[in-house]
Amino acid sequence: MTLDQATRESVVEFPDNRLLIDLCGPYDQHLTSIESMLGVQIVRRGNVLAVLGEEGAQKRAAEVLNALYLRLESGKEVEPADVDRELRMGDAEEGTGTRAGDQLEMPVGNRIEIKTRKKLVEPRTDAQKAYVQSLFENEMAFGIGPAGTGKTYLAVAVGVSMFISGQVDRIILCRPAVEAGERLGFLPGTQEEKVDPYMQPLYDALNDFLPGKQLAKLKEEKTIEIAPLAFMRGRTLSRAFVVLDEAQNATTMQMKMFLTRLGEGSRMVITGDRTQIDLPRGVSSGLADAERLLTSVPNISFNYFTSKDVVRHPLVAAIIEAYEADEASA
Asked: What is the pTM of this model?
């Protein structure tokens, strides 16, 4: 990259024109995203991209373009999610400040990738990157933050990756069935069919990472289990990757029951959003109590997300920020 201070222009050269086409995206979609996010203008001149704008923004745009080009050189595709991830990622050093337990095999270097049967999953923000790293490092990890930040999705991806590599023998995913309440009895079907609608987000995540036939077989063999939190009572979960989703809706006693199911060779992930508690009035959230009681316990990490880590539609982040602002002013 060369910089002409007089014209405030950075020039980034790419030797392979075919890769440059993929870098720009359909109808220059990827370049448009970079321009919009960083407030720069990108002009293509042959195999060169000229970046015009404020010097700091030019430099950041050049970093993003080079990172995406290196991705293409390695044989990977560049999709809008990859552009979004590079734009969100800062230059933070490796290391999350969380307490590490026994080390499992985990990605090394600046980029973290989670390999599953169907796709390669990469964190899009620094908080997501720190979270994934803590899932590999710690026997128990909490992911706390608003909806759409990838807490459950990334946890399930890591669970599938560890299962594929033989680091765990099974995957257990559960949620409190708080939304169902007494209405469960009025739903048709067996007990499993009654709770299935409340487990659907976990099914959705698994379907992203495992072929349908393999997933069905693993579920039939109980190697992968999706169940309400109440079904965990009395069990010892050894060599398992266990995820408790929507943990803000677990009571203190339920949370204690769940956390003490941890067995040898297992990993536990607890995810929740403190702003979406559906428990009856006067019933305290087990997630809040666990956060208060366990922050000093070794081998347990707490990872936090904000609206800046939302990776759904941009409007989701705006909605969350509006509600946060209203609560702060109340």
From this structure: 0.74
